[in-house]
Amino acid sequence: MALPKLNVPVYEAILPSTEKVIKYRPFLVKEEKLLLTAQESGEDAVLPAVKQIIKNCIQGEIDVDNMPIFDIEYLFLRLRAKSVGEEVTLGLKPWGCPQNDGKLCKFTTEVAINLEEIKCVKDKKHTSKIMLDDKIGVMMKYPDMSQLNIKGSENEMGMQVVKDCINMIFTEEETHERDSFTDKELDEFIDSLNTKQMESIRNFFDTMPTIKHTAKYTCKTCGEEKETTVQGLNSFFR
Fold it and tell me: Which residues of 141-155 are buried (b: 16+ CB within 10 A; e: fewer)?
């Protein structure tokens, strides 16, 4: 006789990048084991585990491998809230501590944060279409998990992310999709940009949606009211 199967609730969430409604289930014991193993292995193992958990739990055809990192982070926090509990306690150290010459406080203050209150913050001026001059522009895509594996100096990694995220180059007459030009041609195109044009591309990354939350609390050391912005998935599991 087969063992009974438990009913698992299904929830809905809206993807920040596309505003598409998706359905998901809470993660189960097998996903908890996967996450615990990743946390024991170190920070680099957490995001790949998170991606696998999302693959396991969402319903429908969703391309998780190419999903923007902020979508991954947002979905996982929704999963965590429905699976383990809405509240997580973080140990925060505020800046401007009068007991430490206005620097980072030496002691942590335990702060409870409701994961359901964490939002994906969007800049109203943010755009994926960037005009480099009156006739030539680029269409950008958001960084996905593959960009986390880039190695090299800070400048080398930043430049590689820029290259990876240029999805199209267009003029008034024609468009050039990413698979229609070589890496060498893209390098030559980027090398031909002036400083202002490159800054407009970098601004795409500076203003793209991000998962963040401003925690307000009373510092247990000095007793002052403080605010700390918690940003990025790893920040919510310190």
Answer: bbbbbeeeeeeeeee
